[in-house]
Amino acid sequence: xxxxxxxxxxxxxxxxxxxxxxxxxxxxxxxxxxxxxxxxxxxxxxxxxxxxxxxxxxxxxxxxxxxxxxxxxxxxxxxxxxxxxxxxxxxxxxxxxxx
Length: 99
Description:
- By secondary structure, the protein is mainly alpha-helical.
- The chain has helices spanning 7-18, 25-30, 35-40, 51-56, 58-97; strands spanning 22-24, 48-50.
- A two-stranded antiparallel sheet has the order 1-2.
- The longest helix is centred in the last third of the chain and has 40 residues, at 58-97.
- It starts with 6 loop residues before the first helix and ends with a helix.
């Protein structure tokens, strides 16, 4: 999947998602990042992966970009559902007002 997300937007999303600017191995597993892939990156002495390293690695970048797109889709779906509920309430109110 080819996703083109601004680096700054993706960086903010990653920080918000992982709650920090470094990714621990346990968190990497949560995001289905292969343990070997995590080890192949430039992790620091405390076994953390810096956010800039995520952004520099094309596979990890794409993985988080995909997560970002999925989250945006979920938000859009939720807004659509809420809008539909509001429209249904308006229709009910109109139908009830003429009685």
